[in-house]
Each structure stands twice: as structure tokens, then as C-alpha cells.
């Protein structure tokens, strides 16, 4: 298979969708039956369901998405926080405040001690996994920097999984990154429409569309078997981007036997001194359909939702397919520990400003299990091993107990500071354990964890 197959597949499905977008009663019934019986949709079917806001079809879509989410992931929601290391960048992306020619932000690159301090602030919240983010700089400079930062965080802070979102590397560069024992390598294509892509990326290495699109191939070939993809919805027609994400995931799975571990669905948000002026507005309703369609088309993948989105919508989307959420995020280097909040360093504006405790509380009220689990990476359940379990709906057999254990550890850590949340969480754990196989063994492990035992997983 060739990387260009993605583009050909997407363009064909996109064209076919618009040619047949006016649904007949026969086609509506066909799509409804597929959703009711769990038959996989074609890319053109995806396009037709997305374009047409037909109440009966949409309710079938949302219902099916909930079933898939429950089957594969159960009721757990993984929580994490991004750690921005640097906002220096050699690219000029018209929608981003980090762009090289933006003189309205303060440029910061965290020193080693600062990065460790930021990681410790995040850990003190209760997070055990972080996502490192930085603007693009020359490859060797970036890797030399990360080769100091990542080992130091692992050694000095009780962070158990470090995922990384950085610019594309060469295959040799990805091998160096793998040696740092990262979790997931995450990269968004931004837009799968090459014309839109060229319009919004004005200069810099990022302007090379194919180099970016082929980056996940190089990461996999270098031995990084846990990867995440995504698009920035709002740069162009969201249908094209939706089809692009699905086609990219299908390509990876067919070629390497490994689909993306995660798919992210960021919507374009205001950024300091951004110069992009042609935003394709996406309603909340259409955004819900994007999440639901990704869930049923890529049932094995974790869908990540950031704090770009408002809290009410985030709370609703966990029902339709989202399985991972950032919580209490900051989007600029040094912003977790900095007292001076006037200094502008962030990449984009946030919409959900709740604390981690507030988000945990809401999840519990909705019957979801907050998870800080990092077990799969450390138990080598990644790549094809993860895919084999997730495809058969078996991954939750590991994930649910591990999520319970990680949440129990979180509760122990906050019990004095937030006693009411501790009681609510403990009651939730007690009831949930009763529904699981091996409940007695899990209950015994949780008793140890709630008395201070750390880092328990299977």
C-alpha cells in the first residue's frame, strides 16, 4: 500500500457523498438497518450520515455509538494533562499562536528544572500520565532536549507514562524517541485536504504535506507501536477531515496490523494573533456526529477530547464515544506553576476551566469511572497485542480492574484534601467491584490501595 492511497480513497468517497447526498427512502432504510445491526459503514455511508441530519438515522447512530463504547471501553474515562515544554517554532501556521512570525507572545523554552517542576505540579493534581507538547525546531535540537527532559521526569516525578506530541521526525529520529521509553507518539495531520493544508501552512518544514502524512509510517517502522492521529476540525470541510482520519486509520491497520491507539478531535479555537480567517464553523450537533461516527468506524481506538470544548459538551460527549479527556489543562510552557498569569504563552484559548477534582466529581455523577491507568504500556499491551484485545472487545477485561486500581490510588491521595469526593469515589468503587469477575481479589487489592499501596496493575 502507498501513502497516496489515503488521499485517493478520501477524495473518491467525498465526491460520491456529495453526488448522492439527497437521501432516498430506500437509502435511509439501508443506512438505518446497518446502524441497527452494527454493520460497518462504507466511507460514502459515513459521509451521507454526517451530511444529513435525519432524526431517525441520527438516533440510531448515537445509540450504536453508545453500545460500541460500552462494549470496548466500558464506563471508564482516562484522564491526563498536557505539559507544554516550548512555544518556539520554525513554522508559520496561520491558525496557531506559536507561529514564527507572531510577536504577540512571550517565547519560553523550559529548562530541565522547570520542566520537572511543571511535571510535579501535574502529578500533585493526581495525574500519572502526561502529554509533552512543543513547537517545531530542528530535529537534533529537539531530540537532544527531550533526551534530557524525559529521563529526568521519569526519575524525579512519579509520572508513569509520558506521551509525546512533536513534529515529524526521520526514521532514525523516531528510533531515538522510542529509546526514551515514551508511551504514545501523537501527531495531527491538521487537514487531509492538500489544498487547504498548503493555504494554512505559510512556511517552514510543516508546509510539506506528504512528509507529515507519512510520519506515522516512519514512527511504526522505527518500532513505536503506539501512535495517535487526528485532524484540526474547522480548517476546511469537516466531512473531508472525518473521512481522512478514518481512511488514515484503516490504511495503518491494513499495512502494519496496528491502527491508531488514539484519535483526537480538536476544533479550531481562537489563538493569540492568529491570521487564519476562513474558519469552517462546526455546530455542536455536527461535532457530536463526528465523535459518534469515529467511535463506530474505529471501535478499537481511544477518542481524545481536549479542554478546547466547553464543559457541558465534554460531559455529553463521553456518552457518545470519547474515552480520554485532558483535565485541568494549561496550553503554554510554564503555565502550571507560574504566578504571573498575564504573560501570554499559550497556544489556544481553553473553554473548560474546571479542576481535576470537579471533572472527577461530574464523571462519578454520570456513572463513569475516572481512570489514571498506565498499565498497558508497562505490560507491553501495545501495538498488535493491544489491537488483538481491543478488536475482540477484550481490552476492558484488563482496563476496568486497572482503572479501578488507579482511581483508588487517586482517592487515597486526595482523601484529606477532598474528603467528600473520597467518600463518593469509595462508594462508587464498592458498587462497581460487585459487578466484576474476580470481585473478591479486586476488592482485596483495592483495600490495600486505599491504605496507601501504590502502582498496582495487572
UniProtKB/TrEMBL annotation:
Domain Radical SAM core: 75-308
Highest taxon in the source lineage: Bacteria
Cofactor requirement: [4Fe-4S] cluster
Keywords, sorted A to Z: 4Fe-4S, Iron, Iron-sulfur, Metal-binding, S-adenosyl-L-methionine
InterPro entries found in the cross-reference section: Aldolase_TIM, BATS_dom, FeFe-hyd_mat_HydG, rSAM, rSAM_sf, ThiH/NoCL/HydG-like
Gene Ontology MF terms: 4 iron, 4 sulfur cluster binding; catalytic activity; metal ion binding
SMART domains xrefs: BATS
Example GO biological process: water-soluble vitamin biosynthetic process
Pfam families linked to this entry: BATS, Radical_SAM
Listed name of the protein: [FeFe] hydrogenase H-cluster radical SAM maturase HydG
Natural source organism: Carboxydothermus pertinax
Amino acid at each position: 500500500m502507498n501513502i497516496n492511497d489515503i488521499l485517493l480513497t478520501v477524495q473518491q468517497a467525498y465526491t460520491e457523498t456529495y453526488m448522492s447526498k439527497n437521501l432516498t427512502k430506500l437509502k435511509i432504510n439501508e443506512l438505518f438497518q446497518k446502524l441497527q445491526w452494527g454493520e460497518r459503514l462504507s466511507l460514502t455511508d459515513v459521509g451521507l450520515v454526517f451530511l444529513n441530519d435525519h432524526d431517525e438515522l441520527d438516533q440510531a447512530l448515537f445509540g450504536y455509538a453508545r453500545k460500541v463504547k460500552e462494549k470496548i471501553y466500558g464506563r471508564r474515562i482516562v484522564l491526563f494533562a498536557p505539559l507544554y515544554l516550548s512555544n518556539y517554532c520554525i513554522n508559520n501556521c496561520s491558525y496557531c499562536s506559536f507561529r514564527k512570525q507572531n510577536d504577540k507572545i512571550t517565547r519560553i523554552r523550559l529548562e530541565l528544572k522547570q520542566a520537572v517542576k511543571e511535571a510535579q505540579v501535574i502529578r500533585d493534581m493526581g495525574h500519572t500520565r502526561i502529554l509533552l507538547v512543543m513547537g517545531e525546531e530542528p530535529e537534533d535540537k529537539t531530540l537532544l532536549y527531550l533526551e534530557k527532559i524525559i529521563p529526568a521526569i521519569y526519575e524525579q516525578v512519579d509520572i508513569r507514562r509520558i506521551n509525546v506530541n512533536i513534529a515529524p521526525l526521520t526514521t532514525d529520529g523516531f528510533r531515538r524517541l522510542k529509546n526514551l521509553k515514551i508511551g504514545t507518539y501523537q501527531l495531527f495531520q491538521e487537514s487531509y485536504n492538500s489544498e487547504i493544508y498548503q493555504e494554512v501552512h505559510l512556511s517552514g518544514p510543516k508546509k510539506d504535506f506528504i512528509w507529515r502524512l507519512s510520519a506515522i509510517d516512519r514512527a511504526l517502522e522505527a518500532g513505536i507501536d503506539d501512535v495517535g492521529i487526528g485532524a484540526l476540525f474547522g480548517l476546511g470541510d469537516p466531512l473531508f477531515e472525518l473521512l481522512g482520519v478514518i481512511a488514515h486509520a484503516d490504511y495503518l491497520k491494513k499495512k502494519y496490523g496496528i491502527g491508531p491507539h488514539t484519535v483526537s478531535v480538536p476544533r479550531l479555537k481562537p489563538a493569540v494573533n492568529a491570521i487564519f480567517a476562513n474558519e469552517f464553523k462546526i455546530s455542536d450537533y455536527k461535532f457530536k456526529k463526528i465523535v459518534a461516527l469515529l467511535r463506530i468506524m474505529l471501535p478499537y481506538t481511544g477518542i481524545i477530547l481536549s479542554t478546547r470544548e466547553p464543559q457541558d459538551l465534554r460531559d455529553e460527549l463521553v456518552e457518545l464515544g470519547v474515552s480520554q479527556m485532558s483535565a485541568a489543562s494549561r496550553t503554554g510552557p510554564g503555565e502550571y506553576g507560574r504566578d504571573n498569569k498575564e504573560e501570554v504563552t499559550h497556544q489556544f484559548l481553553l473553554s473548560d476551566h474546571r479542576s481535576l477534582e470537579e471533572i472527577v466529581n461530574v464523571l462519578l455523577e454520570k456513572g463513569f469511572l475516572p481512570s489514571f491507568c498506565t498499565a498497558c504500556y508497562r505490560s507491553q499491551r501495545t501495538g498488535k497485542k493491544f489491537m488483538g484485545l481491543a478488536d475482540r472487545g477484550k481490552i476492558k477485561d484488563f482496563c476496568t480492574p486497572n482503572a479501578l486500581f488507579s482511581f483508588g490510588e487517586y482517592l487515597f491521595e486526595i482523601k484529606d484534601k477532598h474528603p467528600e469526593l473520597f467518600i463518593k469515589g469509595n462508594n462508587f468503587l464498592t458498587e462497581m467491584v460487585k459487578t466484576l469477575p474476580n470481585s473478591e481479589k479486586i476488592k482485596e487489592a483495592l483495600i490495600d490501595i486505599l491504605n496507601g499501596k501504590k502502582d498496582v496493575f495487572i
